[in-house]
Queue: 2 jobs
Job 1
Amino acid sequence: MGGCCSSPKKELPEKKQIRLQQNQRRSFSIQQAPQPFGAAEAVSEVPAFSEFSFADLKAATNGFSSENIVSESGEKAPNLVYKGRLQSRRWIAVKKFTKIAWPDPKQFADEAWGVGKFRHRRLANLIGYCCDGDERLLVAEYMPNDTLAKHLFHWENQTIEWAMRLRVAYYIAEALEYCSSEGRPLYHDLNAYRVLFDEDGDPRLSCFGLMKNSRDGKSYSTNLAYTPPEYLRNGRVTPESVIFSFGTVLLDLLSGKHIPPTHALDMIRGKNILLLMDSHLEGKFSTEEATALMDLASRCLQYEPRDRPNTKDLVTTLAPLQTKTSVPSHVMLGISKHGETPPTPPHPLSAMGEACSRMDLTAIHQILVMTHYRDDEGTNELSFQEWTQQMRDMLDARKRGDLAFRDKDFKTAIDCYSQFLDVGTMVSPTVYARRSLCHLLCDQPDAALRDAMQAQCIYPEWPTAFYMQAVALAKLNMNSDSADMLNEAAGLEKKRQNGGRGT
């Protein structure tokens, strides 16, 4: 998969071509593939599944630095998982396999695409993969607030309150039911390390468990005491095996510690409910709800697979147990959440910066109309021979786009600017910035972000390109990234004022 810049169809002068190629390698946009497919619970802001280059992922993870490793434990979460950040400012989680685990690149790619089609608000969704030479990597949404294991077993400030534990059980059951209903009922090695918390503090099921750890290797890496009995017999994962593993997660939520299922079942049969419950809850739980959760765990942990409930039963049982439904997850977890309003940049903002920080699209439109094309100076070097009829048609398309843009006919402007850009003979950061705003005004923030990034590719130190990315990111609810872009744009403007290239 290439970067965000499309190479012009006609060759540019040598220096220009080299600069654009360098920017291609540095930039990485939200994919232009069709929107993700899935059931009614599709998550529209997740990029479409696609292939990444190894160079992009290496850059995103700072060379796969050990400081970027986010796996809770090598035993519990096999294969290394790294935190990374793409050029588009999107945070990602990258799972690195060995070539030995997946020697056949096509098989790895096919498995990854099979998982990549799923989109659900209860999943930490898979957004891509890399199969470059000997490299085998999966790329998923990054979940910034740790794992269930961390919050249950290694907490520092506060343990998870009872209502939140019920929410975790319910949300993960919803994730399993979605996968099952969409034809992917097998989940490998479900445990507390596979449950992750997103920026809102909501629990999500890691998509990595939907794919085996190797072509034909073990599907379970946890202690044998927590492994489904049928897996020990035949080494195969079945939908009923997933239910057994879900039962062990319920035990974790009840007890706040690892208890072997056989031991826990003995306690449940002996009615030793209080002995099983997590003492850190300090009695702040409903005995009736705890009994219902223990009963469900007991059913999930039955020795015979046919005696266990299915995923629909899990959801049906857990839904009525939900309390504090109006309280956000991050409040119950006791974690902070990024504010909705980006912080003020350290540098004074220009009129363009002020308009972008206010998300004032009307003011941005007026500024772009007034600025016209003066920022494009030096971005095109055309020879006399290139002034063909195609060139005249292309410039006519841009002129019609400019008229539509001035008259606020933004859909027509998008069509005309697209005709201009599709020819590829000229590159114009201003056209990309203008089309980016048109997309914003037509409620198409993904497309707006792509265009703003294309403008940056052509003119890497142009503040307007960064400002437009800031607005698009804010529209995508990526507020922290939007603030970063706003700061970067303001910094570039300050650099200009101190002697850099000006407009």
Job 2
Amino acid sequence: MEKKEFSPWEWQNQLSYVQAVEVKNVQGTLYVSGQAAVHPDGTSSNADMRTQLALAIQNLEKVIDEAGYEAKNIVRLTVYSTSSDEFINNCFDLFQDFVARHGMKQTVTLLQVVKLNETLNVELEATVVK
């Protein structure tokens, strides 16, 4: 697989994403459903957004790993949040740590939504290649 990132500016580097990713000679593409703070028994977390984001990241990493892919090869990540302000002000450092830990260079879209399932307030959807 060949992966090339494009960013005509530098300001997005501080936000832990790139403007575009080109992928060639892909062996496989994994489309991961939104991963949220759902415990192994299927119950939704009712914790604060920061705690939920940590669990959502763990769940995303688990799905990617079990499918035989690597988080460093996430090329598109969509973040659904019930409060963009809360995500940016109270959780963004966790997001940046996740990106840095895997050396990711991915596109990102952050969307504020009215509601997620049950008590959930953040969800991560990803596209991964190998």
